[in-house]
Specification:
heterodimer; A: 267 residues; mainly alpha; ABC transporter involved in vitamin B12 uptake, BtuC; 0% strand; B: 249 residues; alpha/beta; Rossmann fold; 6-stranded mixed β-sheet; 3-stranded antiparallel β-sheet; 8 helices; 9 strands; 30% helix; globular
């Protein structure tokens, strides 16, 4: 892990912690919806496509956060259209797009010899190189995502329970679903730095699954999932700091450990 | 004569070239209970979706009375077990006022279950919960898709009685879909037999003696059997059943 020379060790740790917590706060409620709506594989597919977003950013020199959001949204749109038209089962379709988009990203990046890209940090995160600018991006996008989710909470819950009933009751289902896709795309763009493309879904699914065992209402589950995510970030970073393990995988490992612990509690 | 709540005329609809409805007309008036009955694939769900404006028909016109408020009870609710939600929270999605939710639950007789997780309700309790949510909207038209599904016979009678009471109290029209014939007979004002077109319709007593009805459902003791094969104008729904034996030689 390359540490900028100017930064002191404490700065590095503080930035990493702030970035991790910022992302974990959003993945809580978003992850709860991903779990309720059984969209884990969908999220994974979008996350895999973000490598293509990075390649695009390098190619036309725009900010990677922006291009990742755009690529994720385009892929989400393609998925929705294909799901309506194709006769393939949804998970087969996701499997095709998930791995194809990851492969396109890998090939595209390898075809650009002029830029040197640390592939490992893209795939598994590079929390210890977070900059002040990254923090600003994470917190502004994170705040926007949370506000959007609060605004859409009731309609989102309604369409999660029964989409047609929600439509009859006057909820603009297509608009709400599109906004939800946007939130997923935004979250992927900011979580990439923290746990990397391959591990983003774990940060969505594992804290939410852990929270389920303690929650009695949807809101409790969302808040507890944020809390579990934050705990995983703190434990993961601590282990990364003291044991010199890679930060992203350590955070996911801690989230997994918390889930295992939660199994002790009787339902 | 009461004015119609909704009027469908000469509705036709196809999915990917397969005609599922042709020339279906239907009028629902206040205070009237209409039951849609027909074999699987008869287009009942499609017709319900058109009434609910979830689907725009290819052909025909739909006229809704101004101020029409539709209460919808879907066929089944699949809620992921990971979603922690009580009956109270479920109803609050339609109506934030707790008192109104309690009133609706009392109306369907399950007010004691208000704090129960939705996933723990039995089949009959779940149907009543869905009915409570539908009436929370103070509808003048109730659309019920297989309202007694997954409910035992005694429970079914109770539910049909409840639907009749709700019709009287809310003074609304009711459109319901049913598989079950003899139970629904006493609970409905008009039966429409659908098999991609309207085979016959009218008062339950008249319908039950109608040749088209008997042809479609057979005797009243076997309401689920679909005896003859309607070929109509759909292209590929023909008889695919060959006599046994085969060509192995």
């Amino acid at each position: 892990m390359s540490i900028p020379e100017a930064a002191t060790m404490i700065d590095v740790l503080l930035y990493a912690l702030l970035a991790g917590l910022g992302v974990a706060l959003v993945t809580g409620p978003l992850g709860a919806f991903i779990v309720w709506r059984r969209m884990a594989y969908f999220g994974d597919t979008l996350a895999h496509s973000s490598l293509l977003g990075v390649a695009l950013a390098l190619l036309i020199s725009i900010h990677p956060t922006l291009s990742v959001v755009i690529v994720c949204l385009v892929l989400a749109l393609i998925l929705v259209v294909l799901q309506q038209q194709q006769n393939l089962a949804s998970d087969t379709l996701l499997g095709i797009l998930s791995h194809t988009s990851l492969a396109i990203g890998l090939v595209a990046i390898s075809l650009m010899p002029s830029v040197k890209v640390d592939l490992l940090s893209l795939l598994f995160g590079d929390l210890l190189t977070v900059t002040a600018q990254d923090i600003v991006i994470i917190y502004s996008i994170g705040t926007a995502s949370i506000l959007l989710m609060i605004l859409l909470w009731r309609p989102l819950l309604s369409i999660t329970i029964h989409e047609e009933l929600a439509r009859v009751e006057g909820i603009p289902v297509t608009a709400v679903r599109s906004a939800f896709m946007l939130i997923i795309a935004l979250e992927i763009a900011i979580a990439m730095k923290v746990v990397g493309i391959l591990l983003i879904t774990s940060l969505l699914v594992i804290p939410a699954a852990t929270a389920r065992r303690f929650a009695r209402t949807p809101e409790q589950m969302a808040l507890l999932a944020s809390l579990m995510g934050c705990m995983a970030v703190i434990c993961g970073l601590a282990s990364s700091w003291f044991l010199d393990t890679p930060a992203g995988p350590s955070i996911v490992l801690c989230a997994g450990g918390l889930f295992l612990l939660s199994l002790i509690k009787k339902q | 004569m009461k004015s119609p709540l909704i009027e469908l005329s000469a509705i036709g609809h196809s999915f990917r070239g397969n005609r599922v409805l042709s020339d279906v007309s239907l009028t629902i008036k206040t205070g009237q209970i209409i039951t849609l009955i027909g074999p699987n694939g008869a287009g009942k769900t499609t017709l319900v979706k058109i009434v609910l404006s979830l689907l725009k028909p290819d052909l025909g016109t739909v006229t809704r009375a101004p101020g029409l408020r539709v209460g919808y009870m879907p066929q089944k609710l699949h809620i992921d077990p990971t979603l922690p939600i009580t009956l109270r929270r479920f109803l609050s999605l339609a109506e934030p006022s707790l008192q109104l939710c309690l009133n609706a639950l009392a109306e369907v007789g399950i007010e004691k279950l208000i704090e129960m997780p939705l996933q723990s309700l039995s089949g009959g309790e779940m149907q009543r919960a869905l009915l409570a949510r539908a009436i929370l909207r103070k509808p003048n038209l109730l659309v019920l898709d297989e309202p007694v599904q997954g409910v035992d016979v005694i429970g079914q009678e109770g539910l049909y009685r409840l639907i009749g009471q709700l019709r009287d109290r809310l003074d609304c029209g009711v459109l319901m879909v049913s598989h079950d014939l003899h139970l629904v007979m006493s609970a409905t004002d008009e039966v429409i037999c659908l098999n991609q077109h309207v085979c016959c319709h009218g008062h339950p007593d008249q319908v039950s003696t109608n040749p088209a009805f008997i042809e479609l459902f057979g005797s009243r003791t076997a309401p689920y059997t679909h005896h003859h094969d309607h070929s109509h104008d759909s292209e590929d729904n023909g008889d695919n059943v060959h006599s046994g034996g085969g060509h192995h030689d």
